[in-house]
Amino acid sequence: MLTDRKVGEERRFFLKKLFNFLFFLASISFTLLGLIVFKPSNPKRRDYIFYSVPEDRIPNEGVKKVDIKIENLSKSFKIFLVKKDNSLIAFSPACTHLGCFVNFDINSMEFVCPCHGGRYDIEGKAVAGPPKDPLNRLPIKIENKKVYVGIKI
């Protein structure tokens, strides 16, 4: 037979467990709601802004390192332009391993990362060293005989 004291203890135990469970459900619900409503914007999701490349900086054949000056930001960005078989390719100079700036070695016809020895062929494909991914290609538009390269700012 249950005494009043035992019934009270069991009721308190049950209510305590119920309160903890409801608090747990409410905290999960508010967390999910917060993630949905206040979802952080993706900083990598930026659009390209196209900037013109001076005509004298476009290579006739091979590779040229080009400085693109952005007037309104008083900044400049370095890119590589590669002309091979009548096609023009623009590359970011950042190594895909750790972001060091690569240089072009005219003797080996490769892009070389000075930090960890990563090497890329003239088409930007990783050929040696730690990088697994190719150099990042930048979009190119040609309008009215002018070349524009897309850069994310």
Q: In summary, what is this structure?
A:
With 153 residues, the protein is α+β, with helices and mostly antiparallel strands. The chain is 22% helix and 34% strand.
Q: How would you explain this protein's 3D organization?
A:
This protein is of the alpha+beta class. It has two domains: 1-40; 49-151, Rieske Iron-sulfur Protein. The protein has one helix at 4-37; strands at residues 49-53, 62-70, 75-84, 87-91, 103-105, 110-112, 119-120, 126-128, 137-138, 140-143, 146-151. The strands form three sheets. Strands 2-3-4-9 form a four-stranded antiparallel sheet, with no helix packed on it. Strands 5-6-7-8 form a four-stranded antiparallel sheet, with no helix packed on it. The protein has a three-stranded antiparallel sheet with strand order 1-11-10, with no helix packed on it. The longest helix has 34 residues, at 4-37. The chain starts with a helix and ends with a strand.
Class per helix and strand makeup: alpha+beta
Alpha plus pi helix count:
1
Order of helices and strands: HEEEEEEEEEEE
For CATH, the homologous superfamily of the largest domain is named as Rieske [2Fe-2S] iron-sulphur domain
General form: elongated
The CATH architecture category of the largest domain equals 3-layer Sandwich
Strand order, largest beta sheet: 2-3-4-9
Number of strands: 11
What does the main sheet amount to? 4 strands, antiparallel
Count of folded domains? 2
Strand content: 25-35%
Mean pLDDT value = 84
Rg over CA atoms, rounded to whole Å, is: 29 Å
Please mark out the parts with pLDDT under 50 across 5 or more consecutive residues, or reply none: none
Percent helix, as a range, is: 10-25%
Q: How widely separated are the two ends?
A: 77 Å
Name of the top-level CATH class of the largest domain: Mainly Beta
